[in-house]
Amino acid sequence: MTTNRLGELSAAGVAVWLDDLSRVRLSSGGLDQLRREKQVVGVTTNPTIFAKALGDADEYDWQLRDLAVRGVDVEEAVRMLTTYDVRWACDVMRPAYDASAGIDGRVSIEVDPRLAHEAQRTVAEAKALWWLVDRPNLFIKIPATEAGLPAITAALAEGISVNVTLIFGLDRYSQVMEAFLAGLEQARANGHDLSKITSVASFFVSRVDSEVDKRLEKIGSAEAKGLRGKAAVANARLAYQRYSEVFSSDRWQALADAGAHPQRPLWASTSTKNPDYRDVIYVEELIAPGTVNTMPESVIHAYAEHGETHPDTVTGAYDDARQVFEGLAAAGVDMADVIDTLEREGVEKFEASWNELLDGVRKSLAAAGQGDGHPGDAARGNADAAAQAGGNA
Q1: Tens of pLDDT, residues 195-251
Q2: What contacts 24+ positions apart, CB below 8 Å, involve 358-362?
Q3: How many CB atoms are located within 10 Å of the residue 146 CB?
Q4: What residue stretch is flagged as signal peptide (predicted)?
Q5: Longest dimension (CA), the chain
Q6: How far apart are CA 316 and CA 237, in angstroms?
Q7: pTM of the predicted model, to two decimals?
Q8: Residues 348, 51, 80, 388: is their CA dihedral positive or negative?
Q9: Three-state DSSP class for 302?
Q10: Which residues partner with 15 through β-bridges?
């Protein structure tokens, strides 16, 4: 008999989400198949995913031609292309949303990462994406930068469901949960139905090991090398401990009594970067009730083939996690600097992917007849190009 390992993982309280999206995946029915056959109940995207999707597929050509004829600028074109895919994905995932009473079935889209240090513009962008997609099972991704914290609160206060992304450290995670609670309190004061607002906090995992392991290798002692591959799981486990404390508080209970749902921890960046480590380590070692694990499709299939599910691999391991952190400090690893480095690099990487996305769309618009990608160029296009593209309106 075939073991339904992903079913066992879901039964242990872990929601399986896909960390990928493309129009090919949508049009082929691949996303719906993962929902039906692989327990996938959510989707996350980011600028890197969209840059790859638009660079690899011809299925965007008809929309690019129409956008070129209309003369939209490149940034508006990116919004139209990405929100089209996310809206479609929301519809595909709607059965999971309905079956979970609105908890799962969510699809995330990220605000322009260049706004990561501008709170007011981040909120405005979050509202715009919320209006454009116009689906109840949408998540707006806002990065957990210092400027992102008030933006998280403000978006939630408007009744917008939020996926907080790029969380690496425990102290910042505590600030994220504070921003969430404050946002729900304001939403309640604004008259919003708290039962309709949900949120996840995306705690990045494998990147922590990549950065810490690099430093341990440089230190080079036997003790340091013995700690390789342990920091990321320890970090996430201690984050879950903080989550458990916050969401058992009297402050939270008052919101729960008003219909609020807890902000679930979401384990992100769960593909193994080091081939010496088990390919599903960041799934197996982070099984706990009320969590989300967002995985690339390769990890989903790997877990379906050989993942080992235990009821809870987190809450009984807090002491071990603290010992790992003590060992890292003794070995000379400055975890505060690790976290600062990862947050800075995370924003920079998403900005680079966003610029790559803009550049690719700019070139595609030019090829479709818009010139260099600015609105005025469409007026200078010839009538033949417009007529050829117009049939796809």
Answers
A1: 999 999 999 999 999 999 999 999 999 999 999 999 999 999 999 999 999 999 999
A2: 358/74, 358/75, 358/78, 360/51, 360/54, 360/55, 361/54, 361/64, 361/74, 361/77, 361/78, 361/81, 362/74
A3: 12
A4: none
A5: 71
A6: 9
A7: 0.91
A8: positive
A9: helix
A10: 292
Residue 274: both structure tokens together = 């080091």
Provide long-range contacts, Cβ within 8 A and 24+ apart, for 113-118: 113/47, 113/143, 113/347, 113/350, 113/351, 113/353, 113/354, 114/351, 114/354, 116/143, 116/145, 116/147, 116/148, 116/347, 116/350, 116/351, 117/145, 117/146, 117/147, 117/347, 118/147
pLDDT in tens, 122-133: 999 999 999 999
Q: Which range is least confidently modeled, 195-204, 240-249, 292-301, 376-385?
A: 376-385
- Within 143-296, residue ranges assigned H as helices are 148-157, 170-189, 206-219, 222-225, 231-246, 250-257, 281-284
* Confidence check: pLDDT of 376 > 70: no
Share of the chain above pLDDT 70, in %: 93
Residues 6+ apart with CB under 8 A from 205: 232, 233, 235, 236, 267, 268, 269, 270, 282, 286
Could you tell me which residues come within 8 angstroms of residue 334 by beta carbon, excluding any fewer than 6 positions away? Answer: none
**Could you tell me the domains of the chain?**
5-378 (3.20.20.70)
DSSP string, 55-97: HH-STTHHHHHHHHHHT--HHHHHHHHHHHHHHHHHHHTHHHH
Distances from the Cα of 224 to the Cαs of 213, 228, 336, 341, in angstroms? 9, 7, 17, 20
User: Is the separation of the CB atoms in 196 and 136 below 8 Å?
Assistant: yes
Active site residue 52: no
Q: Which two tokens stand for residue 354?
A: 């966003």
How do residues 134-148 score in pLDDT, each as one tens digit? Answer: 999 999 999 999 999
Please state the φ and ψ torsions of residue 106, each to the nearest 5 degrees: -90, 145
Residue identified by tokens 């102290």 is: 171
Amino acid 1: pLDDT: 52
Catalytic residue among 141, 218, 230, 349: 141
